[in-house]
Amino acid sequence: MPTAVLSRGLAGLAGRTLVVNLPGSRGGVADGMAVLGDVLLHALDQIRGGDHPEGRA
Q1: 17: in domain
Q2: Is the pTM of this model over 0.90?
Q3: At residue 5, does pLDDT exceed 70?
């Protein structure tokens, strides 16, 4: 679909706030939240200055 590039998700920080954009469809949001749920605690830990466990990058 030619407009697919318009739904490419981005994430970043605004100060110490995690900002994530998700697609406009309910299915796209559900998929995005499922993926985000797996990494959210790690992302928040990194924002707070956490480090990776020994031997992992």
Answers
A1: no
A2: no
A3: no
